[in-house]
Design a protein that fits this description.
There is one protein chain. By secondary structure, the chain is mostly beta strands. Among the domains are: about 1-95; about 315-560, no CATH class; about 560-685, Cytidine Deaminase, domain 2, CATH 3.40.140. It is built from four helices and 55 strands. The chain has a 45-stranded antiparallel sheet, with no helix packed on it. Strands 46-47-48-49 form a four-stranded antiparallel sheet, with no helix packed on it. The chain has a four-stranded mixed sheet with strand order 53-52-54-55. Strand 24 (about 240-245) and strand 25 (about 255) form a beta hairpin. The longest helix has 21 residues, at about 560-580. It starts with a strand and ends with a strand.
């Protein structure tokens, strides 16, 4: 039995054993020791980590765990059939999950504590034929010889077909439009290139150990990777921008340095993050026995502390400004929240995980209604009897996007309607209509209508509403990183639209997100993801970076920036080629090419570097005063001011421009020091640094 394990680089692990040959301890290269103990039958009874926290296990006669008590003292129990397969799990709160199996040991059903069921069926060879999720949606699978997957049909009817080579390696995926995603392998069976449905090819180069050492994208840009003898990534060269990584002896990443940031991390013996310093700003955590953050201190000194229940759900948040307490139902959905001794929110959910009723702090009752597709079609404010509807808002949908709402309430002169027009996930316009019913004095209905253009951020969150009649800002919002929104009292209108796909409910402070409700104050959803762990490891969290990612359906995060950046990079390269094609033999080409897109109109503007022509006065006039000539250079020699000039002359607002700049080689070109001084004052979003 090995007592010493030495890896390349000189790192060693030491193990000890008892007389029966069972491992009793493992010491890693940092000196942290994990200890193991056994019961009288020789089955594993406990594991004690390097910090002294123990997990206790009780096994049956076959040595299979039937009870596990974690490091926080919470116990889970497992019921097994005669074959040792788990048929019931009782969690730390006493809720039961049940599982069924085929004779061959294939999982056929998973019944969650909330009553929802996930099922699978199989063919005679044990290949999955169907999978029905907890929402009742079914995915079907078809197979070719040798049990290779031939086709998959998703719940929405989307069908993909799969092709394999003689080595049973996947070589092509064909979608419903007949487009093909192709894969190429080297003689060792390692993936070396793939071409997507649009024909864009990404290539990979691997070393003798099978590690990717370079990746080349469709534009020919290359990212190179370097590894140490342990296979840990130590450097990345992305088109000349070098990032380096460092690790401790246990393999925990403790430092990363890029052209823009130096990140230092400290971890405990178990690898839990204790502090992270980014360019001198430090965030610290205190963690419990399970590695959960129990307190956090930000660089400004702000502190927050969390407590958890036995199921790992957060039960309280304490900050210098106050304390919140949370309660949940058996399905893990938040159903009560209190501030001090006062109830702030009580809610009820149906079997499909939809919020159906809410009681607000003042005792007001709200009811929510949904259509067969799970879209919320109405919300009612109820009278004291809990039945009579005092206020009603009806919603109209365009697919999964909210198109309109109409509110009927006694405090309104008539139906009040808000209508929205979108381009993709970005709302473009809000139209408000209020109808005053006819009376004896006014025989016809009176209709008042207002139109507002919507300005959004990069991902599609509204930041301003512009009254086109008066050419003034009618609403301007201030939003935290996680979407908590405030606005000045002097605004003449407002919008309930928030992050893409989210709608603000003032009665709860929550954002309706089609399949779930999101709480911007805690940056978490109030119920677990219906898709489970497939989209992300944390089923309750929002996206990891709200600046560039969003979750329009409340199911799965998606990146909003990369497609736009790629589009603008491609447009800038096309513009560069056009400029070069028009040059004479003795003419010198510009060194930089800027492309900008107005996110409200979709218009694209271009600009190239070169001697100032005097036509850039529009940019100089629009600059914030404090940005003028900070480094002594005029604002008219780079590609960026030329692009902004063209945009401003066309009537565009610089704050709505997303831009990229490339060099002669067609690669991203960071702004010069002069442009770094004034471009941020415009408020546009620079996608290439």
């Amino acid at each position: 039995m090995p007592t010493l394990i030495a890896r390349p680089g000189g790192l060693t692990w030491q193990q000890t054993y008892d007389e029966a040959g069972r491992r009793t301890s493992l010491t890693d290269p940092t000196g942290a020791t994990t200890r193991y103990g056994y019961d009288e039958s020789g089955h594993l009874a406990f594991v004690t980590d390097a910090l002294g926290h123990s997990t206790r296990i009780r096994c049956n006669a076959a040595g299979l765990p039937v009870e596990v008590t974690d490091r926080a003292g919470a116990t889970s129990r497992y019921e097994r059939d005669a074959f040792g397969r788990v048929v019931a799990i009782t969690d730390q709160l006493g809720d039961i999950t049940r599982l069924t199996w085929t004779i061959e040991g294939k999982l056929t059903s998973y019944a969650a504590p909330d009553g929802t069921v996930e099922t699978w069926t199989y063919d005679a060879e044990g290949n999955p034929l169907t999978h029905t999720d907890r929402l009742g949606q079914t995915t079907t699978f078809e197979y070719a010889p040798f049990a290779t997957l031939a086709a998959r049909t998703d719940p929405d009817g989307t069908r993909l077909t799969f092709s394999h080579d003689a080595h049973m390696q996947l070589v092509a995926v064909t979608n419903a439009l007949g487009q093909t995603w192709n894969y190429t392998y080297d003689p060792a069976g390692q993936l070396i290139s793939e071409s997507d449905f649009n024909g864009r090819t990404v290539g990979y180069q691997l070393d003798a150990a099978g590690q990717v050492v370079s990746r080349t994208n469709p534009l020919g840009q290359r990212i190179q990777y370097s590894y140490d003898v342990l296979g840990q990534l130590v450097a990345k060269n992305a088109d000349g921008a070098i990032t380096s990584y460092a690790y401790d002896s246990a393999g925990h990443q403790i430092r990363a340095t890029s052209p823009d940031a130096d990140v230092l991390r400290t971890v405990d013996a178990l690898g839990n993050l204790i502090s992270e310093t980014v360019n001198g700003l430090t965030l610290t955590h205190t963690v419990d026995a399970l590695g959960r953050s129990t307190s956090r201190t930000t660089p400004s000194g702000h502190t927050s502390a969390w407590t958890y229940d036995r199921a790992g759900r957060r039960t309280s948040l304490a900050t210098p400004g106050g304390r919140l307490d949370f309660a949940y139902d058996a399905a893990g959905r938040e159903n009560e929240r209190t501030l001090g001794e006062r109830l702030t929110l009580a809610s009820a959910w149906d079997a499909e995980g939809r919020l159906t009723h809410v009681i607000t702090p003042d005792g007001t009752r709200w009811r929510y209604l949904y259509d067969p597709f799970g879209r919320r079609i109405a919300k009612h404010r109820l009278a004291g009897d809990g039945v009579t509807v005092e206020e009603r808002t009806d919603f109209t949908w365009d697919g999964s996007r909210l198109a309109e709402q109409t509110t009927h309430a006694p405090y309104l002169p008539g139906p009040y309607t808000m209508s929205w027009d979108h381009r993709g996930l970005h709302p473009l316009a809000q139209t408000e209509t209020i109808t005053t019913p006819a009376t004896a004095d006014t025989p016809q209905d009176q209709i008042d209508r207002r139109f507002f253009a919507i300005v959004t951020d990069l991902v599609g969150t509204p930041t301003e509403l512009v009254d086109t009649a008066t050419e003034t800002i009618a609403w301007r919002a201030t939003t935290t990183l996680w979407g908590d929104t405030t606005w000045a009292t002097g605004n003449t209108t407002q919008t309930p639209l928030r992050f893409p796909g989210q709608y603000f409910d003032p009665e709860t402070g929550l954002h309706y997100n089609l399949n779930r409700y999101y709480d911007p104050q805690t940056a978490r959803y109030t119920s677990p993801d219906p898709l489970g762990l497939s989209p992300a490891p944390n089923p309750d969290a929002y996206v990891h970076n709200p600046h560039t990612w969003c979750d329009p359906l409340g199911l799965m995060a998606q990146n909003q920036v990369n497609p736009l950046k790629k589009e603008l990079m491609d447009l800038a390269r096309q513009r560069k080629q056009q400029v070069h094609d028009g040059l004479g033999e003795d003419q010198k080409p510009p060194g930089a090419y800027a492309a900008g897109k107005d996110r409200t109109t979709g218009k694209v503007y271009y600009g190239e570097s070169g001697p100032g022509t005097g036509h850039e006065q529009a940019v100089i006039d629009a600059m914030p005063e404090e940005s003028h000539h900070k480094d002594g250079r005029p604002a008219n020699v780079c590609g960026e001011p030329r692009m902004f000039t063209n945009a401003i002359k066309d009537g565009a607002d610089p704050k709505n421009i997303d831009l990229v700049t490339i060099n002669l080689k067609g690669k991203k070109f960071p702004m010069c020091d002069n442009c770094k001084t004034w471009v941020p004052g415009f408020g546009g979003e620079v996608l290439t640094g």
